[in-house]
Write a structure and sequence with these properties.
Elements lengths: L4 E4 L2 E4 L13 E5 L5 E5 L9 H5 L5 H12 L1
Antiparallel strand pairs: 1-2, 3-4
Protein name: Type II toxin-antitoxin system PemI/MazE family antitoxin
InterPro entries: SpoVT-AbrB_dom (IPR007159), SpoVT-AbrB_sf (IPR037914)
Organism: Lapidilactobacillus mulanensis
């Protein structure tokens, strides 16, 4: 697959084909190798930064859920 570099305003842009299904807003780390190749790697969230764990963590009592399911079958 071929892509072409374009100029948009004061930036040089390399488009990502739709078939790659990259979500809008995804961040990448970019590297240029000595042979001229450019590699984009998705940037991963550092699990030790921020307070994301307070927002996304849902603790569940497995035994309570199992009892609820068991009572539904009776």
């Amino acid at each position: 697959m071929k892509v072409k570099v374009r100029t948009v305003g004061n930036s040089t842009t390399l488009t990502i084909p739709k078939e790659f299904k990259v979500e809008k807003g995804t961040e990448f780390e970019a590297e240029q190798h000595s042979d001229g190749s450019i590699v984009f790697k998705p940037k991963h969230r550092n699990p030790f930064e921020g307070d994301w764990f307070n927002q996304n963590l849902k603790q569940v009592d497995i035994m309570t859920e199992a009892e609820d399911l068991d009572s539904e079958w009776r």
